[in-house]
Amino acid sequence: MFRGSMVAIVTPMRADGGLDFAALARLVEFHIENGTDAIIAVGTTGESATLDFEEHIRVVRQVVELVKRRIPVIAGTGANSTSEALHLTQRSMEAGADACLLVTPYYNKPTQEGLFRHYQMIAKTVPIPQILYNVPGRTACDLKPETVERLADIPNIIGIKEASTLERIQELVQRCGDRLDVFSGDDGIAAEAMLSGAKGVISVTANAAPRAMHELSVAALAGDRAQTQAINDRLAELHKALFVESNPIPVKWAVGQLGLIPPGIRLPLTPLSEVFYPTVRAALQQAGAI
């Protein structure tokens, strides 16, 4: 259903932390002009943790209106409370999103049965295509492959964003890739993941280098290892540089360097430390982004 380079788009903010919808419009056009295959609104990179419910849905609705069905829009609707995730998923469906991306419930460390019931309840309650999202490095919660296999039998659970290891992605492709699509949630392993059967990447790097990430995805999905490697070699330092501090701190600074957004970011996140400016700028230059 969804393929290629799918950007986990930043949420533009003014210096005072207010949402900047004019900058959001510029970002959406930038991505469509540069081949981005889908936009994920208000995911982790979109600072979902610092937006209130109404802001969250307003950003989703605005992205849907700006995109005008030219590419898919996927709303980040995960929460560590099942009722909150249900609310966000329902509201995002009503706002016109094509699908929802639901991170595992963070902090409270549910069991595998709890994870199964969480996702089962949301999928059965809200009839929109849903993508699971496993990122144990941020959530202290790991959605195991055997649980993903159980969830793959639910018709509107159509994919998983896996942000752990290449080996886990390859295992998921082997175990349930015939029933749901597997997406890389880590730009650094995305090339090899797609060459191994993943259907795309939900990308941080695509915020700053959308054309290159789209071209990498096209090559990898076609099985062209040489072309994939050549593109990925140019992007390798950017993949790393965008995590010199917690995401989305470096990527918001990087997109600001492209002149697309102002420098706003919300506490407890802070602007990129000046010591990292040369690192991120050099990676942008190597990737051909500036």
TrEMBL record:
Reactions catalysed, as given in the entry: L-aspartate 4-semialdehyde + pyruvate = (2S,4S)-4-hydroxy-2,3,4,5-tetrahydrodipicolinate + H2O + H(+)
Pfam family, one: DHDPS
Gene3D superfamilies: Aldolase class I (3.20.20.70)
Pathway note: Amino-acid biosynthesis; L-lysine biosynthesis via DAP pathway; (S)-tetrahydrodipicolinate from L-aspartate: step 3/4
Biological processes, Gene Ontology terms: diaminopimelate biosynthetic process; lysine biosynthetic process via diaminopimelate
InterPro entries: Aldolase_TIM (IPR013785), DapA (IPR005263), DapA-like (IPR002220), Schiff_base-form_aldolases_AS (IPR020625), Schiff_base-form_aldolases_CS (IPR020624)
Location of this chain's protein in the cell: Cytoplasm
Example GO molecular function: 4-hydroxy-tetrahydrodipicolinate synthase activity
EC number: 4.3.3.7
Annotated site location: L-lysine inhibitor binding: A49, N80, E84, Y106
Residues where pyruvate binds: T45, I202
The keyword Transferase is annotated on this UniProt entry: no
Residues annotated as the enzyme's active site: Y133, K161
Main location: cytoplasm
Biological role: Catalyzes the condensation of (S)-aspartate-beta-semialdehyde [(S)-ASA] and pyruvate to 4-hydroxy-tetrahydrodipicolinate (HTPA).
Complex formation: Homotetramer; dimer of dimers.
Record family assignment: Belongs to the DapA family.
Protein name: 4-hydroxy-tetrahydrodipicolinate synthase
Source organism: Candidatus Competibacter denitrificans Run_A_D11
Chain's gene name: dapA
